[in-house]
Amino acid sequence: MNAMTRPMPVPTPTSQPFWDALAERRIRIQYSPSAGRYVFYPRVLAPGTLADDLEWREISGAGTLYTFTVSHRPVSPHFVDAVPQILAVVRWDEGPHFSTEIVNASPDDVRVGMAVRPVFTDHPEAGVTMLRYEPAG
């Protein structure tokens, strides 16, 4: 393990329900009745309508690989021991896109359009659970 501590997300009052759900191995994102759709990233007002109607709802977390890149150079010195790294955007079955990392897969086995499933990774030192993805097959 690298001597440098990796940067970790810091939950905000607006995003706390998302992080709390991940710690419970669940995925909760916001839904806007006025917009008639799920939204992500967590926010205070609904996009498009600016309504104050956002509700936290659990989703399956299942999705499709929307795009990815294989990083052979570390994104920062904190990740020198983590290459190659498969950086990705997953499109959840419920609609929104999520920036993540593909794990438990070789870069040669990753394809745009493939089904993916969530992987919950605990980081007790930071008090946070991260959401990663792996091939669903």
From TrEMBL:
InterPro entries per record: ChsH2_C (IPR002878), NA-bd_OB-fold (IPR012340), Thioester_dehydratase-like (IPR052513)
Domain ChsH2 C-terminal OB-fold residues, every copy: 56-120
Matching PANTHER family: BLR3430 PROTEIN
Protein name per its UniProtKB record: Acyl dehydratase
